Amino acid sequence: MKIGILEPGFAPDELRDKFKSYPKMLEKLLGDVDSSLEFETWTVLEDVFPASINEADGWVVMGSKHGVYENAPWMIRLQDFLREAVNAGQPVFGICFGHQILATALGGKVVKSDKGWGVGVHEYDVTAGNSDWLSGSASTIRINAFHQDQVVELPEGATVWASSDFCPYAGVQYGSNAASIQPHPEFMRPYEQALLESRLDLIPADVHKAAMESLETPISSLDFAKSLVAFMTRKRARDAA
Fold first, then answer.
1. Active site residue 186
2. What CATH number does residue 8 fall under?
3. Active site annotation includes 96
4. What residues does the Glutamine amidotransferase domain cover (predicted)?
5. Is-catalytic flag, 167?
6. Would you give the DSSP letter of residue 44?
7. Options 7, 27, 96, 99, the catalytic residue
8. Section 165-193 average pLDDT
9. What's the pTM value of the predicted model, to 2 decimals?
């Protein structure tokens, strides 16, 4: 299966040489679960888009420092692309900014939250419900977060599969083939720590301190990667059955 990665943002310049890109982090995370997966990245931030939704079998939208409410031309084009892929029945998954722009594309609302920064390891309650791809998930997951913006209004028909007091709509699903998550399963501790250290001047001292301390908490990213691979590949598995 070929997964198309849509890249709407870059790691900070000072971290890029050591940690590379968010798509490379995702490739590592998912490739360790299923080595047969193929990947290709399109840097939509620079208005580089696939020629069509058929350039890949499914799509993952990554994180960005930008807010979806900026309504930059590439964001509008990205929303159109996501709607087309979702309506065609392709697997579509959003991470952080990807979570927010998928919600926006399908009729939800995103704002810069008055709750402030969500950084460090956050814990979320998981409600699998009818989401068979979450059947192997624990009832709570812990994943590195780094955001201020949040989805505050869901599109019609959307269901919540992960939530916390800080982020009630942390995991959302749209029908059978589109879903998303607010935190970053692709962020391992070394990168989250380096990103926190590089953003010390932007984050309130007490929030920053708590986030740094939270990094001692084991995360669920490797387990969640199995669920994400199940989500991306289940349509192909059903078609082959």
1. yes
2. 3.40.50.880
3. yes
4. 17-196
5. no
6. G
7. 96
8. 98
9. 0.96
